[in-house]
Amino acid sequence: MKINKLKALLLTALLLSFVGATSLAACSDRTDTAAARPTVEHIEQRGVLIVGTTGDYRPLTFCEPATGEYWGFGIELAEAIAARMGVVVQFVHTSWPTLTADVQAEPQLFDMAMGGITITEARCATMLMSEGYLANGKTILCRTEDSSRFRSLEDIDRPEVRVMVNPGGLNEQFARQHLTHATLIVHPNNEEIPSLIAQGEADVMITEITEAPYYVQTDTRLAAPLLDTPFTHGEIGVLMRKGQDDLLQLVNSIIRQMKADGTLRQLTEKYGLIYVY
């Protein structure tokens, strides 16, 4: 399936993603009552913006095993943010199960986290999140021959259906909440799950509308039959610890600049993703 066709299928999701987004947008402007850390000044003095990323979520963030090099939409966006700050970027590995703990760790492991992190009220309650820049929502991957088999959550939520998810993130939370009758398989490596679905090790992968198109394009054995009708609607943003209000304000300003000058739209088009206006 071509990128343009996939993007057309996602237009509905983009429009629906704005519903309910207003309540989450405000979380990026919350101010921590604790003394704010002089984050931006420290980063500028250091000359390096340190970004935590999972490296397992194509096409947003992926770490090549052979070289250790990162690539993806989130990686290029982090590089662009660093460049506009006048510093270079350094990537540090985190994981979905440890993401919250890593963001809040003492001593601090990185300045902010990027790469497929959905804005949620739960995250905003304990951390800071930027304004959204990508539309997101839960959907599925399955084998191409099963496309007509899975047309709703009810079709998936059956004991004979094996559902595979990565641990510790919103995909697992969604599956445990909504798929109480299906057979749930938690696999530690998110990046391996699509190929395991294609090989028949499980029937369905719970994933996102940002991730599913990449695998449909690169593996003809896979399909995303519910891509245009995702189960949830949200946005992806930058995650950081509380007390970094100056960094949050700067990141939001850069995101707005990139929207205004067209660079963010160009980047989303490069990766076949859905741009948030």
Features:
single chain; 277 residues; alpha/beta; D-Maltodextrin-Binding Protein, domain 2; 2 domains; five-stranded mixed sheet; three-stranded parallel sheet; disordered N terminus
Quick description:
This protein is of the alpha/beta class and 277 residues long. It is built from twelve helices and 15 strands.
How much β-strand is present in the residues?
15-25%
What does the main sheet amount to? 5 strands, mixed
Which CATH architecture of the largest domain? 3-Layer(aba) Sandwich
Secondary-structure class: alpha/beta
What does this structure look like?
With 277 residues, this protein is of the alpha/beta class. The chain has 2 domains: 170 residues, Periplasmic binding protein-like II (D-Maltodextrin-Binding Protein, domain 2); 86 residues, D-Maltodextrin-Binding Protein, domain 2 (3-Layer(aba) Sandwich). The chain is built from 12 helices and 15 strands. It has a 5-stranded mixed sheet, sandwiched between helices. The chain has a 3-stranded parallel sheet with strand order 5-1-6. It has a 3-stranded antiparallel sheet with strand order 2-3-4. The chain is globular, with a radius of gyration of 18 Å. The N terminus is likely disordered.
